[in-house]
Amino acid sequence: MALKATIHKAQLQIADMDRHVYGDHALTIARHPSETDERMMVRVLAYALNVTADDLNGRLEFTKGLSDVDEPDLWQLDLTGEVQHWIDLGQPDERRLMKAHGRARRVSVYSFASSTPVWWAGLENKLTRAPRLAVWQIPAEQSQALIPLAERSMQLQISIQDGSIYVSTSSASVEIHPVALKTASE
């Protein structure tokens, strides 16, 4: 018998001064049985970093993710079903990234493992032909600091200013400084 996803609810209050995106978002997160709290919280973080101020070009949504290898962790589809933004977590291989690059107007990757520098060193030169790809490293100690914030029902305040991210609850706060490994040229 297959294990079922665990449902988490998150109320996000986002204040992104860098992109001038502000708003409250009610998220329902289906956590795959093999997904860790750390990975789930990085998904929430990726949502906050990429949600748009309006839905004119489609909504940013969680996908089946780990349950479907043909989908990213998050994506933004426009009204015609075209992929505007493909967001993967972890350390996807070159073939997956180039396939995503062919399908989407924008591709972002958020890697959060301590092995990210080794993964990126083997991939960096192979992805020069992917101008719409951005790759970010969330330092492992910072992504792991998000674990205590993970609950079945969460209220998170996320403030972004000058590239620094502050994730807070009523009882704890985590500061994150993502490192750009590759920026998109578009």
UniProtKB/TrEMBL annotation:
CDD domains: YaeQ-like
Domain of life the protein comes from: Bacteria
InterPro entries: Restrct_endonuc-II-like (IPR011335), YaeQ (IPR009822), YaeQ_sf (IPR038590)
SUPFAM superfamilies: Restriction endonuclease-like
Gene3D superfamilies tied to this protein: Restriction endonuclease-like alpha-beta roll domain
Protein name from the UniProt record: YaeQ family protein
